[in-house]
Request: fold
Amino acid sequence: MNNDIPVQALGGQGEIMAHAVDACVHCGFCLPACPTYALLGDEMDSPRGRIVLMKEVLEGQLPLMDAAPHLDRCLGCQACVTACPSGVPYGELITAFRGWSEPQRDRSVFDRAKRWAILKALPAPKVFSVAARAGQFAKPLAPALPAALRGPLDLLPERVPALQPSPAFTPSQGPRRGRVAFLVGCAQQALAPNFNAATLRVLSRNGIEVVIPEGQGCCGAAALHTGAREEALKLVRANLNAFQPEEFDAILSNAAGCGAGLKEYPAVLHGESDEARARAFAAKVMDISEYLNALLQSGDLAPPMPARRPLNVAYHDACHLAHAQGVRAAPRALLRAIPGVSVLEVPEGDLCCGSAGTYNLEQPELAGQLGQRKAQNILSTTPDLIASGNIGCHTQIQSHVRRQGSPVPVMHTIEVLDLAYRGEL
Amino acid sequence: MKPEKQALTTTSRAPKPASAGGSHSALAAELTRLLGPRRVLSNLSERLNYRYDAIQFGATPLAVVLPESTQDVITAVRAARAAGVPIVGRGAASGLSGGAAPLEPGLVISFTRMTRLSIHPERREATAQAGVVTLAVSEAARPHGLIYPPDPASLRTSTIGGNLAENAGGPLCFKYGVSGDYVRALEFVDADGGVHHLTRDAFDLAGLLIGSEGTLGLITEATLRLIPPPRFTRTLMAHFPEVGACAEAVSRAIAAGAVPSKLEFMDRACTNAVEDYLHLGLPREAEAVLLVDTDGEDLDTVQDELRLVEAACLEAGGTVRRAATDEEGAALWRARRSVSPALGRIRPQRMNEDIVVPRSALPEVVREIRALGDASPFPVVQFGHIGDGNLHPNILFDPRREDPHAVHDLAHRIALVAIRHGGVLSGEHGIGSMKREFMTDAVDPETLGALRRVKRALDPHGALNPGKILPLEEAPHAHP
Reply:
């Protein structure tokens, strides 16, 4: 799309934005992929429409605050990236745009306090855990609370588990076949500590030694995607210092959102001094399912024990796995590697569940509609089990599946594999 | 520069939005009063997004209505007529001729929320409101053992209303026909806000509305014919060292009696653009790739037809590969569907032709266009529904570095090639604003006069999609 974006004045992030706008031919192939277009049916809430809005704002033709409501409704799910034949890097565009525009925005005191609290609590598992436990007690009061507080409470599980710190080093069982670094993630340590425990057990069982480098922190995706670029840069640089990519076969994440965040580092630092380091780092980043699937494909994956009974597993594609990282086949292959497991495809599988980072907190109504639609679609396959690879999707889907009265368990793909290894599936 | 010329050549140069209306025009206020805020868009940020289709940017509308019923459309049309502003209908705006891009500020009626769809298997019919997405018709019909055959490349995005306004085709059109062939009845709203229900008997007024690009009326609902899907389909890909040879193979296959369901061609640049996107292992070195489906109720006949095509391809010097599985066939068709937008990878903008020529003239036409492209500074690519003689030569360009007038000139010369060989300007994408200047070359003055009289009869004040299809009466002949 032709544009007059003042790239020179905008620097490295400006180049990223202008390149994405250039690449868009406004064909509209992205429309059916977009969750907000599916719900609202208007052009400003479609990827093509948002690209035009961002272009106009960057060119100085449209006030930022006029475009903001539509840009804020974007989940950042990147389903449009998968659908785009012209290769528009929409994810990079919206992230860069949010980073550029956030400092210019006029937000209410309440809004700013909420965002501050989210961005402080999310990367600090201890704080998050305390907040989650406090929230657990407030849950019965939810109907009486304002909507802004009700959203997050609805998502809390019935019982918030105790924090389980992960060991800095996990040796391999049997001969060592690999050595990986592992990003422990933030919110999931508080909400689902078993994700990490299962991941360490599965890797170790497969002869992989796991190091959890000291000094690592939040991947920065939440800050980056809400436009808190300065905050994000601190987190990104802290991780670049903590992880030494040359020492490991891979840097693994078991949360799709975090993994996608790590892979974004080169774009975040485009045109800055650490860009080369970010490239070396991102080149080693893999989702846990990609790494294990490589073992499976080379015949090196320790064979899981069969499920006790035939098990239909509905697999939910997390947007940040399927769209942002292009990882679709690997988790399915891992599930199918368990004898007795059949993988079910979910109708409208490409449509976001509505969790999308902080979306539940910022756009509770749309998030709720998408969550309900996702739960209905998943349950229509009558699964015995629901598997996914992202903590955000996990809490959202669990919450909406329960709300529809279904007791079907929701697990991380690696938890399913872990249970199979232990003969408990 | 004359405004119509600008519209034709500057495919994506967005006129600056501030030019059109304040943030709340009187029309927007009146529409909001009549229809409520949910159905009316009046902020600049909202209106900005209703000035383009998949090829062109036009003027920012004064207001946008998102109707949810035919009654909403009637209300909107009457309000716009009272305000004396033009009306442009819009589906998903995936069109490729500027048809849905307003040339002047006015009212845009966007049908994307009119999505009611019902299937009547006993009559083999679907009733679809204008905003129903094309693919949704087949998806809803399939459980009843029926499909809706028209399959434009944009079928996941485009709407029935838009398809009918452009009389869209698709790969299946060679054997199964185009959108208009599946219409049993239409509901439309006229320029005065009157609603009409048309069938195909007496004066085929429905046929007149189909392909009229929103210049004669606004299609609000259609009754569509459904058919049972063929039981067997077989796919073949052939590639050729020269584009003309591909066209020869097509002519030979059809002359030999084959009636494939799809016969699609893409040239080397297209194949490579798609390959960059999908990595399917397409033959990057071939000058032309031909994709063919044969289908039917009887597997032997389907196979026989595929053999006829195969033989014709081999005789014309091609290399043939049969799709071993349905998945392989599906991947090849995904390649073809992605051609149009994947071209954005070569140059940011393009002028899209939509010519149709007699099949006997195909080899010569594709060679002549190839030669015109080679002699020009622009990448010119060709693809299309070659079985129908429907070709899409595209001129790719970068408006920041290259001269839009030279693009326009080349487009005109390509159009003249088609006309010289007995062809027409549009097979399925419409004339829109992109090709309306060429109409004086393609249509004789008496016939153009008849078209103008039809337009005046149905839209006496010229309120509906002004500036599309019909060239200005005083417009000089661009290339005498």
Notes: The CA atoms of residues 37 and 415 of chain B lie 45 Å apart. The mean pLDDT of chain B is 90. Chain B touches chain A through 46 residues (CB under 8 Å).
